[in-house]
Design goal:
This protein has 115 residues and is of the alpha/beta class. The chain has a domain of 79 residues: Ribosomal protein L13 (Ribosomal Protein L13p, Chain: A), CATH 3.90.1180.10. 35% of the residues lie in helices and 20% in strands. α1 packs across α4.
């Protein structure tokens, strides 16, 4: 198994479409030897995350939810606040939730690098 390195420039791309392409590369679905039970994906290096574009009014309307486990402790943060603090977190979260929900997901996310 050989892992190729892909460098992707995100300038002017929308978040969802770029995250979908990256998730496919991390999972290895572009290879002829794809097996869903094995981790054969490639290494992906991301450039210019801050130049991503958001369609519609997502900056004002999109909200991330996190529940602490206690009654009434639902924490919400707007996309705009997370983007100002750390743009890579927004993109890596989009990719994270596009990967399969199993033990391979953390190994796949370790191969996602930001420049």
């Amino acid at each position: 198994m050989t892992r190729n390195t892909h460098t992707i420039d995100l300038t002017g791309q929308s978040v969802g479409r770029a995250a979908t392409a990256v998730a496919l590369l991390l999972r290895g679905k572009n290879k002829a030897t794809f097996n869903p039970a094995s981790d054969e994906g490639d290494i992906v290096i991301i450039k210019n995350v801050q130049a991503l574009k958001f369609t519609g009014r997502k900056m004002e309307q999109k909200v991330y939810h996190k529940h602490t486990g206690y009654v009434g402790h639902l924490r919400t943060t707007k996309l705009k606040d997370v983007w100002q603090k750390n743009p890579t977190k927004v993109f890596s979260r989009a990719v994270y939730y596009m990967l399969p929900k199993n033990k391979l997901r953390t190994a796949m996310m370790k191969r996602l690098k930001f420049v």
